[in-house]
Design a protein that fits this description.
alpha/beta, single chain, 2 domains
């Protein structure tokens, strides 16, 4: 197979024969300086055909999976760690982890905790982890340049189990084609990508006998009950509370004595209240009355910056989608969901929900522009398709295996860790993340049911930023340090 190939192969004997999709790969070579050391690496960019075995038909092409791999030159591949990375959504390409933290180039989307103006800047990533591990960035079907092949329905890949199977099969194919079965292996997912990672930890192990050294979870969600605000489910109201406090603290909406405290210290107090007095109060339902109700409401006022009237109107249950509108309503401003440091402006200051997420608006433009430039100009890959940064697949995602119950892949991760007792997990959490709040993640892992001897295999780190904590350069520096140590300790 040549370094660069065409997408379609036509039989020389019969020009009308059905077109057969093929891999389309471009190989380029580069250098990057990390920690003051120059690293030579090879970038392999393109599409790999995903085929599925069907009865009486053999292997049938089903999808073309786009990926970008970076491998350090002059290394023994059997000993060199390799990390398979992807984002979430469902429906997100891998551009965020790729261009935000791990890859040899990174996009600048904020300065001084504010969104930058176009034109956007792409710079060498001195904080890349390419000095520690090779990377393969994967775009699941219908994201990036990945598509179902002609005649196949994309929906067959759009579901929790279907997605795990297709991404898992790609990982197996890549590992085989590029002779990486002996390499130490890691997964890294962000947001729904952490859901995928937990599923893959069991699938790769049980289906292919592929055991992992470690998993890096960026802004984790494994148990969806912790984050779904539906009637009768009080858990999110409890677990989001510390993030409400962090956001009110950041925007100086708390009292002076609270705003002057160190955030981690303040959050410990809020966590204690949330898991005890607040939880017990909500469990009483209509029985929460009198002085007990007043006491809880007054503490919620202090910890959130919201008014007593508003809290009573919510029945002491604060919904995230309303909080982002309510916190700064008097200023006619909203705060972000992915990162509550960011501020938005709505046309209607009286509305119940915000019109858009200002934290996503701050990153969509920079990452879209810099990636499209980078993949064609530097990696030399060409496609007539639009690169799907973030497709709305989540709206029709198939969760049939979890019908009438919340999605929870934490048990899959626990089972995989019990079978592979050497596998380690690191979880990175942003204080200002409303998509996957840190306290909800702590709750999930404290209810994992993991054997006590394996709890040391799980580590966590915390950042003064949001869902994509690496947008904030001080947090990026800390994240690199934490994950660098994690990789070293897991091989």
């Amino acid at each position: 197979m040549n370094d660069k190939e065409v997408n379609i192969k036509i039989s020389a004997d019969n020009k009308n024969e059905e077109k057969t999709p093929e891999d389309n790969i471009v190989v380029t070579r580069h250098k990057v300086t990390i920690n003051g050391k120059e690293i030579a690496y090879t970038a392999t960019t393109g599409t790999m055909i995903l085929s599925v075995e069907e009865e009486e038909k053999g292997l049938k092409p089903k999808a073309s999976i786009f990926f970008i791999a970076y491998t350090k030159d002059d290394e023994n591949a059997s000993k060199r760690p390799i990390t398979f990375a992807y984002n979430g959504g469902p429906g997100s390409s891998s551009v965020w982890l790729h261009m935000g933290v791990y890859g040899p180039y990174r996009c600048i989307s904020e300065r001084d905790e504010k969104a930058v103006a176009p034109p956007y800047e792409l710079i060498e990533n001195e904080y890349s982890l390419l000095d520690k591990t090779d990377f393969v960035f994967i775009d699941p079907v219908s994201t990036g340049y990945s598509r179902a092949v002609e005649g196949e329905k994309a929906s067959q890949f759009h579901g929790i189990t279907k997605d795990i199977e297709s991404v898992g099969e790609f990982i197996r194919m890549y590992t085989t084609k590029y002779q990486r079965w002996s390499s130490p292996k890691f997964l890294s997912g962000e947001s729904y990508g952490t859901t995928r990672s937990a599923g893959l930890s069991g699938y790769l192990q049980d289906k292919y006998g592929m055991y992992l050294n470690g998993i890096m979870l960026i802004s984790s969600i494994l148990d969806f009950q912790t984050a779904y605000f539906v009637t009768g489910n009080d858990l999110p109201h409890i677990l989001f509370l510390p993030s409400y406090t962090a956001t009110a603290w950041y925007h100086k909406k708390l009292s002076n004595d609270f705003n002057s405290r160190e955030l981690p210290e303040l959050l410990k107090e809020v966590e204690e209240f949330a898991m005890n007095e607040y939880t017990l109060g909500l469990m009483k339902g209509d029985g929460l009355i009198g002085t007990e109700r007043i006491s809880i409401r007054e503490k919620l006022e202090k910890y959130t910056g919201l008014s007593a009237e508003y809290l009573e109107n919510t029945d002491l249950r604060i919904n995230i989608h309303k909080f982002v509108k309510e916190l700064r309503r008097k200023d006619r401003r909203t705060v972000g969901r992915l990162d509550s440091r960011f501020v938005g402006i709505d046309r209607d200051g009286t509305g119940m929900n915000n019109e858009y997420d200002p934290s996503y608006a701050a990153i969509q433009g920079p990452y879209t522009a810099t990636f499209n430039d980078y993949v064609s100009r530097i990696l030399k890959f060409e496609s007539k398709l639009p690169y799907e940064i973030l497709a709305g697949l989540y709206m029709n995602w198939d969760y049939k295996e979890y019908q009438n119950r919340f999605v929870n892949v934490a048990e899959t991760l626990r089972s995989a860790m019990h079978k592979n007792q050497n596998m380690k997990i690191h979880v990175a959490n942003g204080y200002f993340d409303f998509a996957t709040p840190y306290f909800a993640t702590e709750y999930t892992f404290s209810h994992l049911g993991l054997d006590p001897t394996l709890k040391k295999n799980i580590t966590m780190s915390y950042y003064f930023a949001g869902h994509m904590m690496y947008l904030h350069e001080p947090s990026l520096i800390k994240l690199r340090d934490e994950l660098s140590k994690f990789i070293d300790n897991s091989c």
